[in-house]
Amino acid sequence: MFPAGPPRHTLRRLPLLQLLLLLVQAVGRGQGRASPAGGPLEDVVIERYHIPRACPREVQMGDFVRYHYNGTFEDGKKFDSSYDRSTLVAIVVGVGRLITGMDRGLMGMCVNERRRLIVPPHLGYGSIGLAGLIPPDATLYFDVVLLDVWNKADTVQVSTLLRPHHCPRMVQDGDFVRYHYNGTLLDGTAFDSSYSRGGTYDTYVGSGWLIKGMDQGLLGMCPGERRKIVIPPFLAYGEKGYGTVIPPQASLVFHVLLIDVHNPKDTVQLETLELPPGCVRRAVAGDFMRYHYNGSLMDGTLFDSSYSRNHTYNTYIGQGYIIPGMDQGLQGACMGERRRITIPPHLAYGENGTGDKIPGSAVLIFDVHVIDFHNPTDPVEIQTIFRPPEACNETSKLGDFVRYHYNCSLLDGTKLFSSHDYGAPQEATLGANKVITGLDTGLQGMCVGERRQLVVPPHLAHGESGARGVPGSAVLLFEVELVSREEGLPTGYLFVWHEDPPANLFEDMDLNKDGEVPPEEFSAFIKAQVNEGKGRLMPGQDPEKTIGDMFQNQDRNHDGKVTAEELKLKSDEDQELVHEEL
């Protein structure tokens, strides 16, 4: 596109042949070429030997035309040609500036039409002729091709070739636009194209940066719209033309594709595409969010997508980690929401753009699906779904051995794990660091038969790195049901007595009274205590392994048997340690 200001180079206009430009003061009535009936021609003979398929307008009196011609006599001798001067004739028709025969011969002509005109003497130079060039009573032959026609009453002509179904906004004065164009003269001669330069033409509208006709022709356009804009020369480059490519008094035709439009005063535009029911929390600055997106230019050209990487984009919002427009556009979103965020370039990548996919001054459109978000200060969210109607005097607490069913998913509904897939409840000792912190917390204070929904932020789950099957920084949703609970043991204990232990513990344990207790006697004794309800082993572990660990603890010299000197209660051991420390 050329600027609206004065061109650096102008075409030098050569003087046109006086016989065509000056009003002939005396036209004789001399005899001309005979008509087919034998008499002289009374009017111009017009032979239309090339008529274009499309003819949007025909020459009328008062129109300004530009055309090429060859002028010859009846014997074929050339007396004049605009081609020889490499300069078109540019003149108003029907107002006496041409010989009468040419005035009449041009009427009704279409752009790119070719005519042969036979002009009798009385409609040419009559009985006088033109000294040295045109003899008296000469019949003139002209081969004419019309290249342009316009009128001072013309305005910019706009034809919409394609208009998109969705039009978020239309061009107004003061807007900044990016568009592609092909520029031609009215006869189809190309003079410029943005496509050949590999980039859009970027400019303000209505601020004097463009020729007036283009300023007018772009108004009301939608992004993605295609238009044909025909501009008369007085709204283009006028009498001077532009350089060597746009001649003086040339009408211009632009085929325009609008890529995008924005205004420096624009803010981020939000459009909710899908809002899930029950939105109880909206994202705020400082939250950490995981979301999918498709990023496109305003004309629909895709420049990036998280889906193509099969990975969400994870970031803090409102803290400058992403472009300002996205920082603003993500705030206030709900989990699971889909929204369209339109970001003007001054809140995106500005005049320079980035990389080879986002050009300078580009408006960006992001279709976003919010997967989840959390705040580093978030606790576990606990919601009781069902609580048994019968009285619940004891609830789960740290140290308890619990069995529970669970379903675990992401907040977008993606299923991760379920105890039902294994056909048995999950088992854990609360507070033993056997499950993630958030689940451990959420299982405390439950009654047997109670069902809960737990929302666990990643810092209480699998953190930034995630785990097998769990994305990094993912918020997890658990549905849990407490199946059973058993009282836990104090830290460090494998077995506890429900009442005081026997006064003669070793003698009771030494079943064959040989002064030593092998593993078999030790195991039989402990199992008997458990069966009789006198004590209990640590829940959640293999009893044989637990009893084996207890025996190893008592067999202090590792000789495969326990003696009276070796056997000590855990409480006695702890007391001895206290004395040693003292």
From TrEMBL:
> Per the record's keyword annotation, is Transport included, yes or no?
no
Reaction catalysed by this chain?
[protein]-peptidylproline (omega=180) = [protein]-peptidylproline (omega=0)
Origin, by domain of life? Eukaryota
Kindly indicate where the leader peptide sits in this chain.
1-32
Q: Which UniProt keywords apply?
A: Calcium, Endoplasmic reticulum, Glycoprotein, Isomerase, Metal-binding, Repeat, Rotamase, Signal
**Molecular function via GO:** calcium ion binding; FK506 binding; peptidyl-prolyl cis-trans isomerase activity
> What positions does the domain EF-hand occupy?
497-532, 542-577
Quick one: a GO cellular component term? mitochondrial intermembrane space
| Major subcellular site | endoplasmic reticulum
- Give the EC number(s) listed in the UniProt record: 5.2.1.8
Q: Where in the cell is it found?
A: Endoplasmic reticulum
The UniProt entry, under SUPFAM superfamilies, shows: EF-hand, FKBP-like
**Does Repeat count among this protein's keywords?**
yes
Q: Where is this region: Disordered?
A: 534-559
* Domain (PPIase FKBP-type): residue spans on this chain: 62-150, 174-262, 286-374, 399-486
Query: Sorted alphabetically, which CDD domains does this protein's record hold?
Result: EFh (cd00051)
The biological process GO terms on file are: aorta morphogenesis; collagen fibril organization; extracellular matrix assembly; in utero embryonic development; wound healing
Its function, per the record, reads: PPIases accelerate the folding of proteins during protein synthesis.
Q: What is this protein called?
A: peptidylprolyl isomerase
Gene responsible for this protein: FKBP10
